[in-house]
TrEMBL record:
Keywords: Signal, Transport. It comes from Paracraurococcus ruber. Belongs to the bacterial solute-binding protein 3 family. This is Amino acid ABC transporter substrate-binding protein. Residues 1-24 form the signal peptide. The lineage of its organism: Bacteria, Pseudomonadati, Pseudomonadota, Alphaproteobacteria, Acetobacterales. InterPro entries: Bact_solute-bind_prot3, SBP_3_CS, Solute-binding_3/MltF_N.
Length: 341
């Protein structure tokens, strides 16, 4: 795992030396000139990024990309999605193939200090888990000694699984795949006894399987997997835009600004924080070189963070995930917006 990180770092360094660094200094200007945001997303996992029956991408990460396009252009359609595998996502970002990654990417120390990239704000909290057949009689991971386990190459889940079985002095047989759909197909075909990845992705994978009730996600979690947007390290202005854009979605939920009431709150609220957020006063937009109504436009188009979450993977969707740690801090969760002032 560490070796792959170093190889990825070397590849990114070469890409930056080859001209990506100069381009990255003006990412916001380049996006505006292009007339389109280019956003790296997952190759396909329900809840985060998956094409619907019409071929249109849907999911939390997809809507976060669309929201960033709204912040820049006031138009959610001005985004091009680039599906990237786990093993190619960071190289694609470093080389300038995409402007930003909203792609189920865990924030870790080695990624932060070796890849030439920066992660912005944690927008989703998760943990590694395992999915097995419901009739397998397995209730905890320790009962899977010697099991064959499907894993996605280039993810933190490889290392987490290896570390866990090493910690209990047991062996397992990893079977590595480039994409989630490949791992799920192998699991359904009986090539693997279990699938190991982040629990939210297990829930998304299960919702797309032929018989979801045939599969169970074990309750244990074996890691901390905080997802953050990634950008190139050498463009602090673009980092600021992505960072405070993400905070604005969370802040809107904290303040009770929704898709339905955003216009009324912008018109009538006397709360200074709400007035700043919704662009009644111009300082936030001016600081980011965006329109003064950038945050208002996002919420009016897509909703606040909670609305996006519930629409894409919440309890009333096939993925069926409760908010849990992804609830805002005033309701017992971990999401907390730094002050937008």
């Amino acid at each position: 795992m560490f070796g792959r990180v170093l190889l990825a770092a070397a590849a990114l360094a070469g890409a930056l030396l080859g001209g990506g660094a100069a381009q990255a200094q003006q990412t916001l200007e380049a996006v505006k000139a292009r007339g389109q945001l280019v956003c790296g997303i997952h190759t396909g996992i329900a809840g985060f990024a998956l094409p619907d029956s019409r071929g249109a991408w849907q999911g939390l990460d997809v809507d976060l990309c669309r929201g960033l396009a709204v912040a820049i252009f006031n138009d959610a359609s001005k985004v091009r999605f680039v599906p990237l595998s786990s093993s190619t996502r960071f190289t694609a970002l470093g080389s300038g193939e995409v402007d930003v990654l909203f792609r189920t990417s865990t924030q870790t120390m080695l990624r932060d200090v070796t890849l030439g990239l920066r992660h912005a704000v944690t927008y989703f909290y998760d943990g590694h888990g395992f999915m097995v057949k419901a009739n397998a009689g397995i209730t905890k991971a320790a009962e899977m000694a010697g099991a064959t386990i499907c894993l996605i190459q280039g993810t933190t889940n490889e290392q987490v699984t290896a570390d866990y079985f090493r910690s209990i002095n047991q062996r397992f047989q990893p079977v590595l795949f480039e994409r989630t759909d490949q791992a799920v197909a192998a699991l359904v075909a009986g090539r693997c006894d279990a699938f190991g990845t982040d629990a939210s992705q297990l829930a998304g994978a299960r919702s797309s399987m032929p018989n979801p009730k045939d599969w169970t996600i074990l309750p244990e979690r074996f890691s901390k997997e905080p997802y953050g947007a990634y950008v190139r390290r050498d463009d602090p202005q673009w980092f600021d835009v992505v960072r405070w854009y993400t905070y604005a979605l969370i802040e809107a939920e904290e303040q009770g600004v929704t898709r339905a009431n955003a216009e009324e709150m912008r018109r009538s609220s006397q709360n200074p924080n709400t007035r700043r957020l919704l662009g009644v006063t111009p300082e936030l937009g001016e600081a980011l070189k965006l329109d003064r109504a950038w945050a208002f436009n996002i919420v009016r188009a897509l909703g606040n963070y909670g609305e996006i979450y519930n629409r894409t993977m919440g309890p009333d969707t096939p993925v069926g995930l409760e908010r849990g740690p992804n609830e805002i801090w005033t309701k017992g969760g971990l999401l907390y917006a730094l002050p937008l002032r």
